[in-house]
Amino acid sequence: MSEAFRSAYAPIVEELGQLAPAAGVLDAHTHLGADEDGRSLDPVTLLRALDEVGPTTRACVFPFHDPERRPAYRLPNDRVLEWAAESDGRLIPYCRLDPAEEPVQEAERCLARGARGIKLHPRAQSFGFGIAGKLAQAAGRRLVLERRAALTTGATRTRPQATSALRSLLVIPTDYGVLCLIFLLLGAPMVFFAAYTLLFVGSAGYLALAAVKWFRVMQSLDRRPTGMPTPEGTS
Description:
alpha/beta; 2 domains; 5-stranded mixed sheet; 5 strands; 8 helices
C-alpha cells in the first residue's frame, strides 16, 4: 500500500476503530484457498486483515469453488480445517458441500473433525429442501453428541442455580441446535410447520423481552468520535 493511499485511508481506519463493538468483530462470510476463476486468499493474508480490525477479530471460513473440489470438496475442506486449527481460534471452519457428491457423508466427516457449520452455494451447486433436511439431521446428530460429551466430562459452565433453569427455558427458541433438530421434521410437513411456528413465536417473545435491555444499552452509548464538538460547540 502506497504512503499516499495509507494517509488518505487513515481517518476511515480510525473511525472504524471507534465504532467497533467492545465485544469484538466477527466476519461471517470469508472464502479461503483458491477459486477456479483465479481468485484466492490464504490464511496469513486473512489474519493480517483481521489484525487491522482488532487483535480478537475472527472470521467464519470455508472453501472457494476450488478447482480441486472433487470428490465432495474433501481436499479444500481439509485445508480449511487445518488452517482453522492453526489459527488459535480466530478462524471458525465451515465445510463446503456439493449436494451431488456424498454431501451427508462429507458433512459428518467434517463435523467430526471440528467444522462448526455447513456452506451450500445455490449458484454453484443447485440444491433443494430434501438435501437441506438430511444435512440438518447430520448437524443435529453431531450437536447431540457434543452436548452429551460436555455433560459427561463436566465441561458445561456452572451458573447460579436460581437463574439457570429459567434462563435455559427462555433461550431455547434462540438455540441454533434446536433449529437444526426441528429440521428433522421436514419429512412431516404439518408437524414441521407447527414446530417452526412455535419456534418463531418463542424467538419473537425473546426479542421483545431483550429489546428493552438493548435499548437501554444503546441509549448509554456515546457514538461521537473523540474530539468532535457538540452542536452547541462544546465538548
